[in-house]
Amino acid sequence: MNEKARLQLLKTMSEVFGPSTMEDEVIAFIQKELGSGFKTVLTGHKNLIAWQEKDHYECTIVFQAHTDELGVRPYRYLSNGYIELTPTGGIPGILNNHLVKFVPNDTNGVLLIRNTQGKRPRFFADVGAASDQEALEMVPRYANGAFTGVSFEESKTQLKGKSFDDRAGCAAIVYTMKKWSELSKTRIIGVFTAREETGNWPVTELYRAMYELDLIPDLIVNVECCPAEEIPGDTEGVASVGQGIVLVHMDASYEPDPNLCRFMSNVADKNSIKSQHIAVRAGSGELGRLALGFGVGGYPLTIPCRYMHQPHSVISKLDYNACIDMIAGIAEEYGNSDLQVKSFK
Q1: Fewer CB within 10 A of the terminal residue: the chain, N end or C end?
Q2: How far is the CA of 158 from the CAs of 175, 295, 318, 321, in angstroms?
């Protein structure tokens, strides 16, 4: 295991600017990282599909993660120079005094959130302007903002950084695809989706494009982050950082087949991959719409993450490495399993 390469990939990918609808830099990074040995197709709403051409394969597995991070957009400009914002994604209403960067002018501002009783939080940015006109010149109406000023740091066991949701999933898939043997009988397709944080996932466009490219999967695996305990001493968290990859036996959008759940548990056990098991009551990614759209089986893998949807987030090296190992294990075992691949179609 080349842990240095795994961590460097995550560091670089997590630091790339890319809120919903502005995933271009992340897409370009993935394409460059995969290199010329992979074919890539980008759909109109920035879903990236990547795969290696294979003369013969027995099954096809899609590993999917979303590329966008949380963001903000200007809503209106106030006479005192503040900019009221609309969040593009579920930014918690408890944040204050965090830096956001606005593109295209690379203007930094301080994010301020005001909670009024019985109403939704109001989001503002202080970009150092004294009037609405000055603020407009610094941050155009068509600008997009995202958290900035967060450094990637590692301790002996943990990682701290920005946008692990879901750049950790993207990095795990990209790393595995680069290491995957072309001689394998399993074809891996990496699917990197856009606009997940806003809920406007262009999923229909995605599977239409994949049908046209004859990239029909036998299995879809969603690779995400999930909330972990955030309070010291908390024993009520759904998942725990440092306890392994989370095998999700149900989320709010999809309930995997029990045989598939058993298969995932067996892969983890056979490959000595540390894992934990949950059924999520609330929250989901794109898996339900993808699996039901293709009419194939699907399964969600998640990496426990503290402080999701906040500027700083914390994950465990063990969990991140377990995710990569699990992706490789699924690809290695699925075609040879007692699951009849064609039965999922």
Answers
A1: N
A2: 19, 38, 8, 11
- Name the residue with tokens 């893998």: 301
CB 99 within 8 A of CB 54: no
Let me know the angle formed at the C-alpha of 174 by 180 and 308, rounded to the nearest 5 degrees. Answer: 140
**Residue 2's Cα: distance from chain center in Å?**
22
- The answer to whether the beta carbons of residues 219 and 297 sit under 8 Å apart is yes
CB neighbour list of residue 94: distance below 8 Å, 6 or more residues apart: 113
> What is the DSSP-derived secondary structure letter of residue 342?
G
pLDDT, one tens digit per residue, over 86-138 is 999 999 888 888 999 999 999 999 999 998 776 789 999 999 999 999 999 99
At 6-49, the pLDDT tens digits run 999 999 999 999 999 999 999 999 999 999 999 999 999 999 99
Pairing relationship of beta strands 98-103 and 71-77 according to DSSP bridges: unpaired
- Closest by CA to 11, choosing from 197, 150, 128, is 150
CA–CA distances in Å: residue 85 to residues 21, 31, 88, 147, 155: 16, 32, 9, 13, 35
Does this model's pTM top 0.70?
Answer: yes
Tokens at 174, concatenated: 């990209």
Query: What are the chain's domains?
Result: 3-69+162-344 (3.40.630.10), 71-147 (2.40.30.40)
Provide the sign of the torsion angle of the four alpha carbons 105, 49, 32, 168, taken in this order. positive
Q: What pLDDT was estimated at residue 345?
A: 41
Q: Which are the contacts of 22, defined by CB distance < 8 A and separation ≥ 6?
A: 68, 71, 103, 144
Number of Cβ within 10 Å of residue 17's Cβ equals: 20
Going by C-alpha positions, the residue among 22, 24, 307, 32 that lies closest to residue 160 is 307
What are the two backbone dihedrals, phi and then psi, of residue 71, each rounded to the nearest 5 degrees? Answer: -150, 180
Structure tokens at 228: 């972990």
Place of tokens 């290696």: 52
